[in-house]
Amino acid sequence: MECYIGIDLGSTTTKAVVMDEDYNVMGQGITNSRSNYDIAAGVAKHEALIDTRFMLFRNAMKNVTALGDKYEAFMDELERNFRLEQYLEQLIDLDETCTKASENTRYSEWGSDLSDALSGVFKRVTTEAPELFAPGAQRKSDFFRDIAGSQYSTISEEVAKQAETPFDVLLNIYDRSIIEVENRIYTETTNQNLMRALDRTLVNLPDLAPVASEVRTEVEKVLGIDLEETYVIGTGYGRARLPFSKDHIRSEILCHGLGAHIMYNDTRTVLDIGGQDTKAIQVDKDGIVESFQMNDRCAAGCGRYLGYIADEMNVGLHELGPIAMKSTRKVRINSTCTVFAGAELRDRLSLGENRSDILAGLHRAIILRAMSILSRSGGVHDQFTFTGGVANNEAAVTALRELIKENYGDVTINIDPDSIYTGALGGATFARRAVEGIPTEAVA
Amino acid sequence: MSVQKIVDRCQALYDDLDFTVVKEWKAKEEGRKAIGYMPVYVPREIIHAAGMLPVGVIGGGDQLEVIHGDAYYQSYICRIPRSTIELGVTGRLDCVDGMLFPSICDVIRNLSGMWKLLFKDKYVRYFDAPQTYDDKIGGKFYVQELRELIEGLEELGGKKITEEAIHNSIAVYNENRAVIEDLYAYRSKCPWKALTSEIYLLLFAGMVLPVEEHTQLLRDYLEAVDKEDRPMRDNCRVVLNGTFCERPPLGLIKSIEMAGCYIVDDDFMLVTRWLLEDVPTTGDPVQNLADAFLHHSAETAAKYVDSYEAKGQFIVESVKKYAAEGVVFAAPSFCDPALLDQPMLHTALNDNNIPFTAFQYAENSGQMQPIREQAGTFADSIKLWSA
Amino acid sequence: MSVKEQASTVAEKEDSMWKQKEMINENYELLSTANERGQKVASTFVPGNINELLMCFDFARNFPETNALQNAMRKKSGGMIMEAEKIGHSEDVCTYVKADLGMMMKGNKGPTGLPMPDPDLLMLSYTGCFTFMKWFELVREQYPKCETAMLHVPYQADGNITKNMRDYVVKQLKEDIIPTMERVSGVKFDIDRLREYMIQSQKAEDDLVYVLQSAKNKPSPIDAYFGGVYYIGPIFTAFRGTTAATDYYATLRKEIEARVAAGLGPITPEGVMKEEKYRIVVEGPPNWTHFREFWKMFYDEGAVVVASTYTKVGGVYDNGFRHDPQNPLESLADYCLGCYTNLNLPARTDMLEKYVEDYQADGLLINSIKSCNSFSAGQLLMLREIEQRTGKPAAFIETDLVDPRYFSPANVKNRLESYFQMISQKRDRAA
Amino acid sequence: MTITAGIDVGTGAVKTTLFKVEGDNIEWLSKRISRIRRRDPMALVNENYEAMLEEAGITKDDVDYVATTGDGENVPFRTGHFYSMTTHARGAVYLADDITAVLDVGALHGRAISIDPLGKVLSYRMTSQCASGSGQFLENIARYLGVSIDEVGDLSQEADDPELVSGICAVLAETDVINMVSRSISTPNILKGIHLSMAGRLVKLLRASKVKEGKVLLTGGLAMDTGMVAAMREEMAKQNLDVPCESSPDSIFAGAVGAALWGAFRFEKLQGLGQLAEAS
Ligand SMILES: Nc1ncnc2c1ncn2[C@@H]1O[C@H](COP(=O)(O)OP(=O)(O)O)[C@@H](O)[C@H]1O
Ligand SMILES: Nc1ncnc2c1ncn2[C@@H]1O[C@H](COP(=O)(O)OP(=O)(O)O)[C@@H](O)[C@H]1O
Ligand code: SF4
Ligand code: SF4
Ligand code: SF4
Q1: Ligand lying nearest the CA atom of residue D71
Q2: Is B31-159 CATH 3.40.50.11890?
Q3: Omega into A383 within 30° of 0, i.e. cis?
C-alpha cells in the first residue's frame, strides 16, 4: 500500500499521520519528543504505521461475518493487549538497563539492598501492568516514559521507606536508564507483539474460539501487506534537524493551516497552542495562509507552562483540566512566566486560595495570552479551529470559549479530539500532493 | 466623613475601569466634554477653562484583562500603552472626547499616532514641551504650543476660552496643589496615619473627579485622618521614585509599607505636583503657565536637565525636605527614561551618602514576594544598623 | 569568515565600496589624533545631525551610534554591553547607549582599534528619539567639563512641519547652537561656508535618491536594506557636505546605472544574486551582530529588499527634500524635522504603503528592534494597516541592533521561511 | 543566655537551626534540612523544628526567640521575621571569616549582597524575573540528563569544552540543552556550560553590587555544588573580579543561621527595652 506520511516534530511531542492515495487518514502516531530527533520521528512514524495496520485489521475483520456483534469487543481487546505487550517489552528492557546501571560503583555503598529494592520495584511494576491496560482504565499519559515513570516513582517511594535505600538513588537510576530505553525503536518485534496480543485476546475472549482460525488468517493476511513509505514530509519546530531534503520540509504554519482546513473546510482562523509556541493563523477558503503570528521568544503561556504546573502539583497533565473545572470563584493571575508559575501557585495556596480556583485562573491566563496573539494576527473569523496539545485540556477550552464569545461574539468553534495531529495531517496532505504534482494549491 | 468612607470611595473610583464618574459628570449637562491625558504633565487649567473635564488616563491597573492591547505591543515595551489601548479599543474611553499625549517618551509619543490611526474621529494632540528653557527660545515655542492647544479645544468645544476663564482655572488648581502640598507635609509628619496606600488612592481620585470636588475630598481626608488613632510602626522613611508614568499596583505600595518602609515622598501622578509654585493669576495667563513650566516645575526622567551639576539634585533635595532615610527606586520594566536616568540619580545619592535600593515592576505585577524581600532588606539594614 | 573578510568580499566587487571603507577609516584616524592636534571634536547623533554646520567650525565629527554598530559588526558590542550592565544599567534599555558607555569603560578604543578622542562638544541633536537625551546626560557624566548643546527638534505630531516648529529650531541654531560652537571652537561663523557645504550635500543627495530608487527596476540592482545600509553610510554621518561624499555617490550612481543597463541583480557577499523571487519592503533597523547571517537568510531564498525605512533615518530625501544653500538654517531645520523617526505614525505608515506600491513589493517585513522604542512602539499597528491597505502579506520578526543575545537565528529563520513560503503559496494560487 | 531558632522557608528546601548565644559565645545546637519536593512547607517546618528540639533535648518553652526568613512570614509560632538578604549576610559572617560579599543561589533566585564586617548589608542585586540561573533549572536539567544532584559538581569539572546556553529563559534553555544532547555534546560539557552561564550572570550581579575586595561566600543550595563554585571562580577571573570565592559545608544553612543570630540580637535588645511582647 502506498503511504503518504506527515511528521510534525514538536517541542514536546512528535506526531505522524499516514494517508493513503485517496487522501484518507489511515493512521496516527505520537510520541514524546526527545533529544534524538531521528528516533522521535522514527517512533512516531512507526506508531502511525501500527495504527494504520490496525485500521487495516478493522477493515479486514468486518469481512469476518462470523464475528458478528463481537467485532467491537475483539478489536478493543486486541488493541489493549497489543499496548500491554509493547509496554511489557519496554519494561523488561528498562529493568535490565536499571539493573545494569545499579551495578555502577557509585552506588556500591548500598550494596545488595539496592538490587533487592530494585527488583522489588520492578516486580510490582510488572504485576501492576495489566491493570493499567484493563478495559476502561485511565492512563496518566500515552508515553512509556510517563506511565512507567509514575509507576516507578510511586512504588519506589514506598519501597524506599521500608528498605534502607534512599528514594533519590532509585530515582536517579531511573533517570539514567530511561534515556537509554527511550532511544531504542522496537520495530522488529512489532509483529510478534501483535501475534502475542492476538493469543492473549483469544484466551481472554473464549467465545471467539469458533472463529479463531479465520481471525488468525485475516490478521496474518494484513500483516503481509507492505506499507510502502511513498513520500514523507517533515514539519514542526525541529524540522530543520530532520535528515530530510528541503523538498520534504514545510513550515509548520503552512501545515497547520492546511491541516485545519482539511479537518474543517470552512475554517478561517486557526489557533495552535503547543508546548513552546502559540500560533495564530488566518487561512482563506482554500486553506492558504493569509497571515500568522507567533509568540515571541518568551515561552510564557504555552503548553509547557501546564507541564510545570502539573509537576508542581504532582498530578498528571490530564488531570489539570478536570481539577480546574471544579472552580467556583474567579482568581486573576497575571504572571504566565512558566518558571515562576510554581512560585505563584505556592504563594497563592499559602494565602489560602483554593486549588481549583487558582488553576482555573492559570488556564485563563494562558488563554489570555493566546487571545492577544489571535488579536495580533487579525482577530477571530468564523469558523475558528483550536488545535495543538492544549486543545485536549477542557479547562483551557472552556476559558477559550468564554473569551471568544466575550470578544468576538458567536463564532463556530471546532475542536477535534485528534487536533494534536493537525500539523502532521497538513504534512501528509502536502506529501500526497507533492506526488500528484499539485504544488501547494488546495484540492479539497 | 470617616477616613474609611473616603478611602472606600477612592478605591471604588480606582477599581472602576469604565470611568463611570466621568460619564455621570458628562450626563449632568448637555454638551459637556472630557479630555483624557497621561498624568505626567499637561496644563489642566486650560482644559478646565474650556469647561471640560480633564481625565487622567493611567493604564488599566492589575484588574484589566489586556487582550487587544497586547496585540499592538512587543513584549519588551512597558505595560501602560497596552492597557491604555485596551481601554480605547474596548470602548471604555468612548466617554473622552479627546486625548492629550504629553511628551514623556517615545512610547507615548508613538501612542499619539496610534490613537490617530485607531480613533479617527477623536481630537488627538501630542502635547510637546520644550527641552530648552530660555524664555526667548523654548518659552516662545511653548507659548505657541499652548495657544494651539487653546485653539484646538475652542474648536472642539465650540466656544472661546477667555483669559479670565484661564485665570480662574489657574486659581482653582493653585488651590488643589496647595492641599496636596499639605497632604504630603502631613504624611511626612505622621506617616503612620496618612498611609501611602491611601494617599495614592486619593491622588487617583483626582484623575477622574472635577478638581473642586477633589480639593474638598482631600481636605476632608486630612481632617478625618488626624482624628484617627493609628498604630505607629518601627518603619524607616523612604522616598519612592520612578513611578511617574506607569501606575504601580496598589499591592506594591502596600508591600513596601508592610516590609517596613514609610514612603514620605513619591512621584505618583506627577501632574498633581508638577508645578512647584503658585501660578500668578494676573497678567497673561498663557505666559504665566509657560513661565511656571520653564522655571518652576518638577524634575522627572522625561525632562532634560541642562547642567551636569544640577542632575539628581531634585531627588537629593526631596530626601532632605522630607527627612527620608533612603530612596526606593521602582521603575516600570522596560521604561527607558526611568531606567536610563537611574544610574545618574544613584551617583547623586551616593555623593550625598543616601542609601537606596532599586527594583522594577509592571502595572499588573502579581508577585510581590521579591519586592517585599528587597524593600524588607533595605528596611532591615536601615533599622538594624542606624544609630 | 570574519567580519573584515565579509566586508572585503563585498568591497572587491565595486570601487564605491573601497572608497567608503577608506573614508570611514580615515575619519577614525582623524578622530584618534584630534585631541593631540588640537582639533576640536563634536559628538553627535545620526538623525537630525547638523554635519555641515559642525564643519563650519572645523569640528571633527564623532557619531556614537556608528561606533556602536561598527563594534557590533566586529563582534565587540556584546562585551561592551555587559560592561555597562555591570555598573548598573538595566537589561531593558537601548543597547546603543550601553555599547557606547561600555566602549568608554573598556579603554575607549574605537571599532578600528584606535583610541577615541575626548569630545569638546556634545551636540545633542534631540531628533526623533528620547533616548538621545539620556544618552548624552550619561556621557556628560564622563566628561563634566565638556559643553553640551541641546538642539530640541519638535516631533511632527500632526504629520507636518509648522511654522512654530521651524522657527523654534532656527532660533535655537541662531541664538544658542552657533554661539556655543563659536565659543567652543574659537572659529567665527561664516554662513557662506555653510552654503558651500550644502551645495555638495545636494549633489550627493540627488545621487543617493537615484540609487535607492533604482530598486524599482526588475530585477532590482540593489538590496535597499542590506546593501542600503552601506549606501547611506557616508551621507548620514561625518561626510555629508564633503566633496569626498559627493564623489562617492557619483561613483556609486555610475555603478548602479551600469547594473541597471545590464539587468543585473544585487551583489551579495556570495556574489550576484541569481534569481529575484521575492521583493520585500522592510521597516526597522537591521541587526548588526549577525548582519551577514541575517542577510544570508534573505538571499538564499531569493529575497531582495526593494525599499526600507531604515535608510531614511538620517534624512528622508526621496520625497524631494534637499539641503538648500539659499536658506541654509531653515533647510537645516527642515532636514532635522523631516528625519524618519521624527515623523508620526500615520506618516510612517503612509510612507510604507507607498513603498509597497511604488516598488511593486510582495509584502512588508518588520524587523522590530528590542532597543528602539522610537522605531518599535506601534509597529504592530503599522503592520496591520499595511496588510489592510495593500492586501499584501506582512510579517514580523524581533531582533536587536547590537546585543548579540537577542538574535536567535533559528527563530528568525523559521519566521522568514514561513513568510516566504506563504508569499509563494499565495502567488501559486494567483497564477 | 539566649536560646534562639532560625527557620528558613525556601522554595526548594526548609532549613532550621538552633543556637545558644551568650554574649560573644555562640553555640550551634542543632540543624535540619528537608527538600520540599511538593510537600507542604509548613508541615516540614513543624517536623524539622520538633526533631531539632528533640535532638538538643529542650522544649518549645526553652526557646527565647524564633526567627523566620525566606517565605517564613506565615509560620504561626515565629517571634520575628527578617528578610533573606539580611539573614544570609549575618549567616555568612558567622560561617566564614573576612567576608565582604555573599552570593546566595537558591532554588529560584540569585542574590549578590555586599556586606561590612559586621554583616550589615551595604548593597545588593537580585536576578530578575527570568529564572534561567537557578537551582531548580539545574535540577531539572540534571534529571533530564539522568544525573543526580550530588554528582553534578564532579561531572561538571570533567568538562573539556563547555557549551554555553543562551539562557534568556529557563524553558528555552531546556530546549537548548535537548538540542545539545542531540548534537552529542557530553554531559560534563553541558553541565559546565550551564554552570558558566549561571556564573556569568551571578558575577555580573556581584559586580553590580559593587564588590571589589575581600572574599565572597557562596550560600544557598548551589554552594553545595562544587562545579558551581569552580565556575564562579573561573567567571570571576574572566570578568576581572579579583577576589576569592568560597563555600562552606554549612552554606545552605546561611539564612537559617543568620535568622537565629539576628533573633538573639533582637531578643537581647528588646529584653533591654522591656518590649518583648511586641517583638515582630
Ligand atoms: N491529554 C492532554 N491533556 C491536557 N494537556 C495536554 C494533553 N496532551 C498534551 N497536552 C498539552 O499540550 C502540550 C503539547 O502540545 P503539542 O501540540 O504536542 O506541542 P508541540 O507541537 O510543541 O510538541 C503539552 O505541553 C501539554 O500542555
Ligand atoms: N548537594 C547539593 N548539590 C547541588 N545542589 C544542591 C544540593 N543541595 C541542594 N541543592 C540545590 O539547592 C536548591 C535549594 O537551595 P536553597 O538555598 O535551599 O533554596 P531556597 O532557599 O530557595 O529553597 C535546590 O533547588 C537544589 O537544586
Ligand atoms: S523565564 Fe518566564 S518570563 Fe522569562 S522568558 Fe521564560 S517564560 Fe518568559
Ligand atoms: S513607563 Fe516609561 S517607557 Fe513606558 S510609557 Fe511611561 S515613560 Fe514611557
Ligand atoms: S532608542 Fe533607537 S533611535 Fe534612540 S538611540 Fe536607541 S536605537 Fe537609536
Answers
A1: 2
A2: yes
A3: yes
C3-189 CATH choice from 3.40.50.620, 3.40.50.11890, 2.40.240.20, 3.30.390.10: 3.40.50.11890
- Cβ–Cβ contact D204 with C under 8 A: yes
What's the topology of domain D2-88+253-279?
Answer: Nucleotidyltransferase; domain 5 (3.30.420)
B to D CB pairs, distance under 8 Å: 40
| Predicted pLDDT at C12 | 46
Q: Are A371 and A405 in contact (CB under 8 A)?
A: no
Distances C265 to C17, C248, C261, C358 between C-alpha atoms, Å: 17, 21, 11, 18
Domain D98-247 maps to which CATH number in 3.30.2310.20, 3.90.76.10, 3.30.420.40, 3.30.479.10?
3.30.420.40
Q: Is residue A318 part of a domain?
A: yes
C33/D184: higher pLDDT: C33
The response to whether residue C372 sits with its C-beta less than 6 Å from ligand 5 reads yes
Measured between alpha carbons, how far is A418 from A284 in angstroms, rounded to an integer?
22
Contact C197, C56 (CB under 8 A): yes
Nearest CA to ligand 3 atom 3: A337
Q: Across residues B137-142, what is the average pLDDT?
A: 96
Residue to mutate, D156, D222, D250, ligand 2, most ligand atoms under 8 Å from C-beta: D222
- Distance between Cα C131 and ligand 5 center (Å): 6
pLDDT in tens, C316-353: 999 999 999 999 999 999 999 999 999 999 999 999 99
Q: Is A343 on the interface with B (CB under 8 A)?
A: yes
Domain residue ranges of chain B, discontinuous segments joined by +: 31-159
Q: Assign C393 to helix, strand or coil.
A: coil
List chain D domain ranges: 2-88+253-279, 98-247
Burial label for A164, CB within 10 Å (0-12, 13-18, 19+), is exposed
Residues 6+ apart with CB under 8 A from A173: A98, A101, A102, A107, A118
Interface membership of D139 toward A (CB under 8 Å): no
Of C158-167, D27-36, D169-178, D193-202, minimum mean pLDDT range? D169-178
Query: Residue D38: its pLDDT value, please?
Result: 67
For B58-71, how does the pLDDT look when each residue is reduced to its tens digit (9 = 90+)?
Answer: 999 988 999 999 89
Band (pLDDT 50/70/90 cuts) for residue A302 is confident
pLDDT tens track for D114-163: 998 888 888 888 876 555 557 778 888 888 888 888 889 999 999 999 98
Query: Domain count of chain A?
Result: 1
Q: From the CA atom positions of chain B, what is the Rg in Å?
A: 20
Cell of B4: 474609611
Task: Please give the residue of chain B at the shortest CA–CA distance from D279.
Answer: B234
For residue A387, what are the domain limits? 266-419
- Residue A4: phi and psi, rounded to 5, are -110, 125
> Residue A177 corresponds to which amino acid?
S
ipTM of the complex: 0.85
The answer, yes or no, to whether residue A307 has pLDDT greater than 50, is yes
Query: Which residues touch A93 (CB under 8 Å, ≥6 apart)?
Result: A181, A184
Q: How far, in Å, are A37, A41, A429, A430, D82 from residue A232 at the CA level?
A: 15, 11, 10, 9, 62
Ligand 5 binding pocket includes C27 (Cβ within 6 Å): no
